[in-house]
Specification:
The protein is mainly alpha-helical and 267 residues long. Among the domains are: 37 residues, no CATH class; 118 residues, Cytochrome p450-Terp, domain 2 (Orthogonal Bundle), CATH 1.10.230.10. Helix content is 60%, strand content 4%. The protein has 13 helices and 3 strands; from the N terminus they run βββααααααααααααα. A hairpin with a 2-residue loop joins strand 2 and strand 3. The longest helix has 17 residues.
Length: 267
């Protein structure tokens, strides 16, 4: 490890990484020791949580990242494809364009849900081994408050998977198998039930919401979940970029849109 900073410059530096002519350190460890022995998921967990994940925590974290890698031809992937069409020399710009589209509708609900349920877990002092009634009572109050404020419940509903998001069932099953079904996932499921009782309509826990709650359960800082899941989406966007290079879609989309818009303008 590098020498400890002197008292007058102790504020300047980072525990994330450092280098000298002979070494590169990440999280206090020589990168050559990590290469070949630690996965990217494990390293990302280590950097954010400050410790290596257990095998169960790694499995859940990895499952969440896999579940959020891609959603098909969405605004974010189209942004990547269209930016590449206009600036093929800026691969990084095309990928960044897609990442900037991670908001409240696509991908962002993972982070929004993590923050929401984490605040509620703390507020109601919920525990992994708590009674179901405690989660039900908390969920009922949360739903009532959200409805009174005219807001939507984070983590519920999906435009395609109206009867149930297949990713959600799988994440809950993995958490159960690993004995890591924590208060965040339990509360989110209770909210699903309380919400249906309150409005008479079923809105399932979506995959992004379940992913956010699962990451909070294994110890990732809720306020960083939205950024953390971009690790997964980057892989998906690079794949869209590769496909765009092989089988261009964006130029035709652009030209056809322009032609239709021009016809509309001309009347």
């Amino acid at each position: 490890m590098p020498d400890e900073p002197s008292p007058d410059d102790s504020w300047l530096g980072s525990a994330i990484g450092a280098t000298d002519p002979d070494h590169i350190w990440i999280a206090g460890r020589d990168v050559t020791d990590l290469m070949g022995s630690m996965t990217l998921t494990e390293l990302a967990f280590l950097l954010l949580v400050g410790r290596e994940p257990t095998s169960g925590e790694r499995r859940i974290t990895d499952a969440v990242l896999v579940s959020l890698a891609d959603h098909g031809v969405t605004p974010s992937s189209l942004s990547t494809r269209l930016t590449y069409t206009g600036a093929p020399e800026a691969v990084q710009g095309a990928i960044a364009a897609g990442l900037l589209g991670a908001g409240s509708v696509f991908l962002g609900p993972a982070g929004d849900t993590a923050v929401y349920v984490a605040d509620a877990v703390e507020r109601f002092e919920l525990r992994s081994d708590g009674d179901d009634s405690a989660f039900a009572d908390a969920a009922a109050q949360l739903v009532a408050e959200r409805r009174a404020a005219g807001g939507r419940m984070p983590g519920l509903g999906h435009p395609v998977h109206r009867a149930g998001d297949p990713r959600t069932a799988r994440l809950y099953a993995i958490a159960q198998e690993e004995d890591l079904l924590g208060p965040h996932l339990r509360l989110l499921r209770a909210i699903e039930h309380a919400h249906e009782e309150a409005i008479g309509k079923f809105l399932p826990v979506n995959g992004a919401g379940a992913g956010g709650a699962a990451l909070a359960d294994v110890g990732l800082p809720p306020e960083l979940v939205r950024g953390f899941v971009l690790i997964a989406r980057t892989a998906g966007l690079v794949a869209h970029l590769a496909e765009e290079m092989r089988e261009p879609m964006a130029r035709r989309l652009w030209t056809e849109t322009e032609e239709r818009a021009s016809r509309h303008y001309r009347g």
